[in-house]
Amino acid sequence: xxxxxxxxxxxxxxxxxxxxxxxxxxxxxxxxxxxxxxxxxxxxxxxxxxxxxxxxxxxxxxxxxxxxxxxxxxxxxxxxxxxxxxxxxxxxxxxxxxxxxxxxxxxxxxxxxxxxxxxxxxxxxxxxxxxxxx
Length: 134
Hints:
By secondary structure, the chain is an alpha+beta fold. It has helices spanning 2-46, 49-53, 64-75; strands spanning 79-91, 94-105, 108-121, 124-130. It starts with a helix and ends with a strand.
């Protein structure tokens, strides 16, 4: 009986430690994602398209011509005046982010809410679908 009690105690301690490590890992992933989201919208607000493009995982494969094309495309986005991360849902290595923003569109301020999609790859978060639902 004592062996069973010792085994159960060790097992439960190991399980709790594993949950704590997993929980810590999830918290760190979410914190890093929030940093990257803030950076993406800060870069858009500052019109720093080069750094914005670098947040897309596919940008690693771009040659100079493709990079310039992506930057030209990004320059066509309405100006971001302000933004707020409203919700972050992480499911494994994918995340759905709800963003509320104030943009300048055709000379007028407008509010918009949209979703951006991120993937965790190579120990960091990257945009894989940036929704322009202005």
